[in-house]
Amino acid sequence: MTDSLNKQDIENLLPHREPMLLIDELINIKKLKSATGVVNVKKDSFYVQGHFPNQPVMPGVLIVEAFGQAAAALTAHGIDKATYENKLVFLMSVEKARFRNPVVPDCKLLLKIEAIRSHGRVWKYQGEAFVGEKKMADAQWSATIVDRK
Fold first, then answer.
1. Which of 2-11, 65-74, 88-97 has the highest mean predicted lDDT (pLDDT)?
2. Active-site residue (options: 16, 51, 77, 119)
3. What is the CATH number of the domain that holds 101?
4. What is the DSSP string of the chain?
5. 24-33, 80-89, 102-111, 125-134: which has the minimum mean pLDDT?
6. Per residue in 34-76, pLDDT tens?
7. 2 inside domain
8. 66 part of a folded domain
9. Which domain holds residue 14?
């Protein structure tokens, strides 16, 4: 199994599309255990114009969304394709989200995520977001795999 996914690979696993597909790559994949999501935070990202004019910052809620997308891609990539076909991953809870430093364009945001446990269709994850060596945010969250309607 490949230890990295490009944007097209991620689109094949997730239902998200531009502009809401935030993950550009998933690297350092350890099957169903951990991975690093890469988000290229650009000056022309859809949220920059309004958050905040003349001092752009990536919204914390989108950092949490990026954590969730990276985790969904890790899980979808690791489980049997037949188990994942016609399914969606929904965020259930976000715990202990902390935003330590503002994420400003142009940067590469690295999301180091880890699957803590799974029980049936419910998964729990934790992650830390970095720009270079500087920690920008961290969180724990839970998600569930559900049938597409």
1. 65-74
2. 51
3. 3.10.129.10
4. --S-B-HHHHHHH-S--TTT----EEEEEETTTEEEEEEEE-TT-TTTTTSSTTS----HHHHHHHHHHHHHHHHHHHS-HHHHTTEEEEEEEEEEEEE-S---SSEEEEEEEEEEEEETTEEEEEEEEEETTEEEEEEEEEEEEEE--
5. 80-89
6. 999 999 999 999 998 899 989 999 999 999 999 999 999 999 9
7. no
8. yes
9. 7-147
Query: Is 93 inside any structural domain?
Result: yes
Say if 1 falls within a structural domain.
no
pTM of the model: 0.95
51: annotated active-site residue: yes
Number of domains, the chain: 1
What is the reported pLDDT for 123? Answer: 95
